[in-house]
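queue> pop job 88
queue> type: inverse folding (structure -> sequence)
queue> payload:
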């Protein structure tokens, strides 16, 4: 078994608590659905947001999901690069799995698909 990183990103339309929490759940559920793992398989989840999203901690949404209460979570700010994608939530899910690197599916939703068009269509 190996530990693999699974990337994901989603954009939101507004810096509002419910919008951020809902998008975080949608993104994590998308990652789980295509990669078929459970919270017990997770080593940790890193969550980053762009500086324009400060209405809440996105990790709150994950902690409230059934079975995810004990998964280690960390939130931080994305590096503020001029001209970069705005209102974006990113996840790095470290999962213990027998899947090979080529079997891992990364998930990009909304305008975040522009971040990795090479992976968005997989």
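queue> result:
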């Amino acid at each position: 078994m190996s530990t693999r990183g699974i990337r994901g990103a989603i954009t939101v339309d507004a810096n509002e608590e419910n919008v951020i929490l809902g998008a975080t759940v949608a993104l994590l559920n998308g990652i789980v659905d295509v990669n078929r793992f459970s919270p017990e398989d997770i080593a940790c989840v890193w969550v980053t947001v762009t500086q324009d999203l400060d209405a809440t901690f996105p990790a709150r949404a994950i902690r409230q999901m059934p079975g995810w209460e004990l998964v280690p979570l960390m939130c931080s700010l994305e590096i503020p690069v001029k001209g970069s994608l705005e209102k974006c939530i990113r996840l790095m899910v470290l999962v213990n799995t027998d899947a090979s690197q080529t079997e891992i599916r990364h998930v990009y939703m909304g305008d975040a698909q522009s971040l990795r068009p090479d992976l968005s269509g997989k």
